Amino acid sequence: MTLTADTVRGMSGFEGQGDDAIDERLEMLLERIALIPGDMLENEVYQRFDYLLCRRCRDIVAANPLNRTWE
Asked: What is the pTM of this model?
């Protein structure tokens, strides 16, 4: 199972702002990112889990990977 965060749609608040305002906000963001350990940053956008399942269990998980109740 591979989980990836959608960082493109998560970048809100830039609409209607000039290039200078965007550059300033991005610079501030990069400064904050520099203070965070790399493994923590990676976990914010990507996580991978490998599971070895029997065929029946694999089919069950594949049919409902989030284990949500059926309506």
From this structure: 0.39
